[in-house]
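Quick one, probably user error.
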């Protein structure tokens, strides 16, 4: 029995002595990228690892960035080969004794190889490159390095230009919105209370409308909407400037709107009727009405509250065409009383002190869109 135990212990001891001899061999990893001559990673390139006898050990295909990885490779001498029908081929013989990174540059005329170690310090590299089957020692040409760097800087500059161009287009779009908001807010919504809203309808159902305007969003009940008009904002022709004066030409200044004149509110400051001048003011508000032909009619009433007769009474409407300040003026005369001057001229636009007169201005649809208006009242005084 004791002999049996001794035999078992002897057998176990022999196994322990043989364990270092059969220890597992350490294995390494080869990883890297396959690039073209411009430094861009090449996708789908088959990278094959061959042993010293030319037999295939393992292979891997590059991903979309040109990267590959071959794992669990034993120490030894190998050849690394990469081929692509469009970009050419590259190959390298290496003596593997640690992990390392490698960059293969594909070329149809010559093979350029760069190898950099990441973890080991003693991996040996054979610097032979193959040119159409012949092996000659060669480094990366300085011209190729400079060309790669210049190509990278050009692409970087192109990306920056594209970004600046995108910002410029956004700025132009915002500028156009403020110059001509009707290009975006083209819906004219006429309300039952007589007001008008310009905007863009972003949501609607059977009960409400949600409208985007320059000032923000507005929710309107459908029962308050009379109708919605689509305004097509056209571009006006640019002003013609003769070629001889284009460099020195400057646009005329904006017209200065005159303020209506009123009599003094304090009765003690008022003079006698003979010394007081005419003073015509607006009575009430100016009414605005649009017909089916898109013509707009402005009507109102004025009164001479001064102490003298006013002749040739007229109302000047200054329409603001866009947000850049462009204006256009239309004038209408007041229907007052008839008066015959010593020269024989007869007018029906005179207002005696205390008299009233009506006016009407029809703005045709051909006038175009406008975003607002102001008015002035003018007259003449004769003996």
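Nope, works fine. Designed sequence:
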């Amino acid at each position: 029995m004791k002999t049996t135990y001794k035999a078992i212990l002897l057998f176990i001891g022999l196994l322990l002595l043989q364990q270092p001899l059969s220890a597992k061999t350490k294995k390494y990893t080869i990883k890297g990228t396959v690039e073209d001559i411009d430094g861009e990673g090449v996708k789908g390139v088959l990278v094959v690892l061959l042993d010293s006898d030319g037999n295939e050990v393992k292979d891997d295909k590059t991903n979309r960035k040109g990267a590959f990885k071959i794992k669990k490779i034993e120490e030894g001498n190998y050849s690394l080969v990469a081929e692509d029908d469009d970009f050419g081929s590259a190959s390298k013989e290496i003596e593997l004794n640690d992990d390392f990174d490698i960059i293969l540059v594909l070329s149809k005329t010559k093979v350029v190889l760069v190898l950099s170690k990441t973890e080991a310090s003693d991996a040996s590299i054979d610097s032979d490159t193959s040119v159409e089957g012949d092996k000659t020692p060669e480094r990366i040409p300085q011209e190729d390095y400079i060309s790669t760097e210049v190509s990278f800087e050009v692409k970087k500059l192109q990306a920056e230009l594209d970004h600046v161009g995108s910002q410029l287009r956004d700025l132009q779009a915002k500028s156009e919105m403020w110059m001509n908001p009707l290009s975006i807010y083209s819906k004219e919504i006429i309300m039952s209370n007589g007001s008008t809203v310009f905007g863009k309808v972003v949501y609607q159902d059977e009960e409400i409308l949600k409208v985007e305007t320059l000032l923000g969003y507005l929710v309107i009940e459908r029962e308050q909407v009379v109708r919605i008009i689509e305004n097509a904002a056209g571009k006006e022709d640019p002003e013609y400037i003769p070629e001889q004066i284009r460099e020195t030409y400057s646009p005329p200044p904006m017209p200065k709107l005159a303020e209506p004149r009123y009599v003094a509110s304090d009765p003690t400051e008022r003079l006698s009727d003979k010394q007081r001048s005419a003073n015509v003011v607006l009575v009430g508000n100016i009414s605005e009405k649009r017909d089916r032909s898109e013509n707009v009619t402005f009507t109102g009433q004025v009164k001479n509250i001064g102490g003298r007769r006013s002749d040739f009474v007229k109302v000047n409407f200054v329409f603001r065409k866009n947000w850049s300040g462009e204006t256009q003026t239309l004038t209408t005369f007041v229907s007052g009383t008839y008066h015959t001057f010593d020269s024989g001229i007869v007018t029906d636009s005179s207002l005696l002190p205390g008299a009233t007169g009506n006016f009407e201005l029809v703005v045709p649809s051909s006038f175009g869109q406008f975003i607002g208006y102001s008015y002035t009242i003018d007259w003449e005084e004769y003996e």
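The two ends are 156 Å apart (CA to CA).
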